[in-house]
Design a protein that fits this description.
Length: 136
């Protein structure tokens, strides 16, 4: 089963392990993810989506696995992505997708339970990423 979506996972270690997330003005808290183009490898899609949605250039690290989400019917591929520069605690990036939106980026403590501001599919994605990282 080929993954239709790719999710770049950007982590940073402060007092705790944190994952890059953002607030969509219409759809709450999310992780960066997007569609894999025909013929595109999922790791390259992850790097492209991170650049489009967050304005961040990155290189791909390890493949964290794939998960099919019943809620959407899509299979997502998860790739850890490495960013060369230190990223701020929060910032806003204007993404051209869907007519253009300002996304407010922040760091979510990976081991913290996501709030009600997160859609269920992203809560499930966080749980999957936590599980894969603790197995490694």
């Amino acid at each position: 089963m080929e993954a239709e979506k790719s999710c770049p996972v950007v982590l940073r270690g402060r007092e705790t392990l944190e994952i890059l997330a953002f607030e969509h003005p219409l759809a709450g808290f999310q992780l960066v993810k997007g569609s894999v183009e025909p013929g595109e490898a999922t790791d390259l899609a992850a790097v492209r989506e991170l650049k489009e949605e967050a304005g961040i250039p990155s290189t791909v690290g390890r493949h964290l696995g794939e998960r099919r989400f019943i809620v959407t019917g899509h299979t997502w591929a998860f790739h850890e992505c490495h960013v060369a520069q230190d990223l701020p605690d929060t910032w806003v990036h204007f993404a051209e997708d869907d007519g253009g939106h300002e996304f407010r980026f922040f760091w979510h403590p990976l081991m913290s339970e996501p709030s009600e501001n997160w859609h269920q599919v992203f809560k499930d994605a966080l749980s999957f990423i936590r599980k894969r990282l603790t197995e490694a």
